[in-house]
Amino acid sequence: MGTMLSLQEVTKIYPGAEHIKAVDSLSFDLEEGEICTMVGPSGCGKTTAMKMVNRLIPITSGKILIDGQNISRLDTIELRRSIGYVIQNIGLFPNMTIGENIATIPKLKGWDHDQIAEKVEGLLEIINLPPSEYIDRYPKELSGGQQQRIGVARAMAADPPIMLMDEPFGAIDPINREHLQDEFLKIQEKVNKTIVFVTHDIDEAIKMGDKICLLKDGKLVQFASPEELLTEPANEFVRDFVGGDRTLKRLNLLKVKAAMCPDPPVIMKDESPEKAKSMLNELKADHLIVVDNEKRLMGYVDQEALTKKADEVGDIMRSTDAFLPASSSLKDGLSEIFTHDVGYIIVVDEDKKVLGVLREDGIKEILRK
Amino acid sequence: MEPKVIFPLLKRIIPVAAIILIVIWLYQVYGALDYTIKNLPEFFRLVLEHFFLVIVSMATAGSVGVGLGIIMTRKGFDRFGSAIMVLVNIWQSIPSLGVIALAYGFLPLLGLSGIGVVPALIALFFHAVAPIVRNTYAGIQSVSKDVIEAATGMGMTPNQILFRIEIPNALPVIMGGIRTATAIIVGSAPLACLIGGGGLGFWIFTGIALMDMGILMAGAVPVALIAMFFDTLLARLERIVVSAGIQTEEYQAA
């Protein structure tokens, strides 16, 4: 994993506004596969900085390297074809079908017909629009959210290592936006692109970014991971921009896994109720989590349940839905704890194997850090 | 058949049937049919001349108009765009007869003949080129800036953007200009005979001069039919060349 994109002292001065540096000596490096969200108040230069990467806006001074190559030495058209580009208003070509839209750059690059068809279908699958249903339809027949997914697919069609996204979800309603963000992060796990993502929404920047580049008046204020930005804001401006609810934002960012307490009190379902009783007394616990021999969550038993007669705890256990996957956010975790009004939530993996439990004090402790 | 199928069919059949009935009636009532049959060779010659005038002036106006309209949207020329549009709009306000008269009066000043087919073609060309230039320019200008930005950012060259994005998306508007121009040319072509350009106008003006409705109708009715023929032809063409992605429902019904 090397540096994929490197901005070095990049400066932009627009002709006719010589006294203003729209972007002022901006430098940062992005590793391969990282998403960098560029955020800041309007007019901070975030879009200008992004558009210098594919030379839609010419650079005034400084340099931009892609995979070690100075972009000013590359052919503009070739450069742009190797960078995926997604804009807020999508800009699908209305005269072309969905399939033709996605195939645009592969076609210009001279891929053969079968290769293009395979790629287009593959991308439609990735963005959850069945190819047979969508490939021959026109943009006007699709909803805004669907169009934006096509926009993303089109940008990825020629397998560019880098993608530039200019407020890609800005024009989508909040509910769909969240859905598209989640979907995009899932796609990113598969495709591992290096992405510059411009947004004016700090929550989106925190959610989407591996790195956040916070700009003000063309200057870099802080370049850091979301966690660092929230816990160690560089100055008063960052603190204000991030907002007073920094701690709550971290809840969104942190995963349940980080705050859970491993090795919860568990008992196999074929153990005897006597064993369960003695375990409860020994551990001074209220419940025992009942698992099968694969450590999968089955239910729980408490003192009350154990008063019933049975050979195995599996027969008298109670079922529970107070559990959630380890990859959930702490915000969801906390919400579950409040919803079920229980002391803890059981944390499981994708196979429903018990990994640990999440308690309120675990969350408090990690937020205190 | 379901009413859903019948009504649109009726909507199309009724006007066509009405037009045919009116044509037959006009032909019969004034004896135009007799006159045409008696002068069949001349009739064919005039029809051919008429088609020649329309097709040649359409083809030249179409290619020059679309070309000029495109150039006006290109980088470096775009600053002249709005100035040329003002000229084009003023030019278009001159009536057909005025354009023919202008050709008749102006061409001799350039040392050319003001009489004959060529001056007629020149007049028709100049009259028809305006709406084509205007619509081509406006059509390309109206292609969404987002679409152009996306295309540019993806790495399409200006020519690729022109031919794959701008022209296809401007096509309904460009075709609208061509249809307007055709209507103007077909409508003005009968005037060509005033400066020796030939065509069915000859019978119309002869009819007027002799106050003979038969001769007049023998010229006027085919002119009207030719106008309808070209408009239908272009409407069909439009449905073929304009992408389904930008056709409105009106179009598909046309």
Structure description:
With 369 residues, chain A is an alpha/beta fold. Chain A has 2 domains: 3-254, P-loop containing nucleotide triphosphate hydrolases (Rossmann fold); 257-368, CBS-domain. Chain A has helices at residues 46-53, 76-81, 98-108, 113-126, 131-134, 144-156, 174-191, 202-208, 226-231, 236-242, 246-253, 256-259, 273-283, 303-306, 313-316, 330-340, 360-368; strands spanning 3-12, 23-31, 35-39, 61-66, 69-70, 83-86, 162-166, 194-198, 211-216, 219-224, 261-262, 266-268, 287-291, 297-302, 323-325, 344-348, 354-359. In chain A, strands 6-7-8-3-9-10 form a 6-stranded mixed beta sheet, with helices on both faces. In chain A, strands 2-1-4-5 form a 4-stranded antiparallel beta sheet, covered by helices on one side. The radius of gyration of chain A is 26 Å and the shape is globular. The two termini of chain A are 29 Å apart. Chain B is flat. The two termini of chain B are 21 Å apart. Chain B has one domain (31-253): MetI-like (MetI-like fold, Orthogonal Bundle), CATH 1.10.3720. By secondary structure, chain B is mostly helical. In chain B, helix 2 packs across helix 10 (213-241). Chain B has helices at 3-29, 32-38, 40-73, 78-92, 96-106, 117-141, 145-154, 158-188, 201-210, 213-241, 249-253. Chain B has 11 helices and no strands. Chain A binds chain B through residues 51, 54, 56, 76-83, 85, 87, 89-97, 104-105, 108, 138-140, 151, 154-155, 164, and chain B through 144, 146-157, 160, 164-165, 168-169, 171, 243-246.
Sum this structure up briefly.
Chain A is α/β, with parallel strands linked by helices and 369 residues long.
Helix-strand blueprint:
The complex is a heterodimer of chains A (369) and B (254).
Chain A: E1 3-12, E2 23-31, E3 35-39, H1 46-53, E4 61-66, E5 69-70, H2 76-81, E6 83-86, H3 98-108, H4 113-126, H5 131-134, H6 144-156, E7 162-166, H7 174-191, E8 194-198, H8 202-208, E9 211-216, E10 219-224, H9 226-231, H10 236-242, H11 246-253, H12 256-259, E11 261-262, E12 266-268, H13 273-283, E13 287-291, E14 297-302, H14 303-306, H15 313-316, E15 323-325, H16 330-340, E16 344-348, E17 354-359, H17 360-368
Parallel strand pairs in A: 3-8, 3-9, 6-7, 7-8, 12-13, 15-16
Antiparallel strand pairs in A: 1-2, 1-4, 4-5, 9-10, 11-17, 13-14, 16-17
Helix pairs in contact in A: 3-4, 3-6, 4-6, 11-16
Chain B: H1 3-29, H2 32-38, H3 40-73, H4 78-92, H5 96-106, H6 117-141, H7 145-154, H8 158-188, H9 201-210, H10 213-241, H11 249-253
Helix pairs in contact in B: 1-10, 2-10, 3-6, 3-8, 4-6, 5-6, 6-8, 7-8, 8-10, 9-10
